Give the backbone structure.
Amino acid sequence: MDIKKKIVSSKTPYFYSNEMIITKTSLNENQLKYIYQKQLISDLDNKHKEWSKFVGS
């Protein structure tokens, strides 16, 4: 109980919005989508660099 009182009384900002409810599963799915999209963009950037070597020759 003492730990909960310390956490509640701390003046740190909340990470989650009080007006919006998102499940942990939804957050995890969105994070996985973001990581996947980030990887696709990185792969595309590498492909463009590789293609530019052939076009510039």
The chain has a mean pLDDT of 76. The first helix runs from residue 2 to 9. DSSP finds two helices and no strands in the chain.
